[in-house]
Amino acid sequence: MSQRFRIDGAAQLVPEDRSGIPALAGRSGTYALMPTAPDLLVFSRTPPEGGSIPTPRVVLAGDAGGFPLSDLIAFLSQSRWSGVIRVHTPGGERSLTLREGEVRGATSEEPADRLGEVLVRLGYADRAQVEAVLREQSHSKLGRALVEKGVLQAHDLFKCVTHQVSEIFHAIVLCREGAFFLIDQPLDEKTGHSLQLSTQSLLMDSIRKIDEMAHFRKRIPHGRMYVARKRPSDGKLEEDEDRVLAMLDGRRTVLELGHAARLSEFDVTKVVFRLLEGGFAGLTDKPVGAPAATAVAPEKAATPRVRPPVRTVAPVDARPVARVFNFIFREIRDEVARSGMDREFIAAANAALANQALSASPVLEGLAFAADGSLPEGRLMEAFDKHRAHLGSEPLASFRQALSDVMFFLLFQAGELLESRADEDLARRVKELLATLEAP
Predict the structure, then answer these.
(1) Which pLDDT score is estimated for 277?
(2) pTM score > 0.85 for this model?
């Protein structure tokens, strides 16, 4: 626990708790006060004597307004660093947990970042449902309780938790004031949900969102603007655009449209912006009456998708990759079976596959897990052979990524069901199995 001090009117540094004074033992000497931001005090011993202390410890601190956090996170990702980035801002504290450079979790003191708020914002639960569960459960058990009550499906919870972590990440990257701290500390595998997100992908998405949102805000100053329909669809709109256009009655704000359409604030703002640009919608700062009749969007003309030209692809043996991942999938299922939850576990996994909620890769289309937790190897190989010409320049890497996405969902599900020690032991075994794919 951090020791607290205050600076009194005489510029004296006074410990709030006298028991904190022993923490300064061994720190005697002359210290220079470095010029820093108002939220930081940095003292440097002169002359320096060196040395270190056990973890957890702060290894880097800085002014969030004077150094871009995106650059720091990019460096930590490339360095495969493990630890916690904590950011203190006037709005509260947010933190990211990194393991070997990848995002494994995030926390926030900001009420809007709570999972319940994310669920309501994206339209997966209403506020009454969330509040009813929170009267019986803590925030940390909200998601699982909603799944057990049938409000959410497991893959919807996975999607919302992933979105929650992404939004906290995005808020940290956007931070332009306050202080940040890099904390070297042992990581608890059971902290929060079992996730692994690509730091580089999150960074690219954050930077894109920053630039795009600044462009959208030129026409849509905030999400409390009401949106009215000016003309019906012309049959050429994207699916999300047609869906949102059909909801426009002049009585919903941009944010309310996002709730109804299950779109994030960024995504619904982008859709509304496109509708404004196309003359399909208009903005007002007050609600307007609903139109006398609801225009029906004409059916889109069936436009055949033009597939990229088929390239000649050298033979690739994906069977060893499939076998390792199937071994991992069975290992996860067997651990869950010890808790007697394997049927529910497999059912949730198959529902996620059927809804294409885990990966956009075509190699998983139409597949289902067997009772032992494995995917049918023969059909998996057939799907890979059929689609490998369209899996990019490295089809085996794309295949592996699709199976990795499935694996992280299964680990997420298992983490919701297992005790901490069993979950940590499972994560260790999975890591060892994945390492066999790297062996020559």
Answers:
(1) 92
(2) no
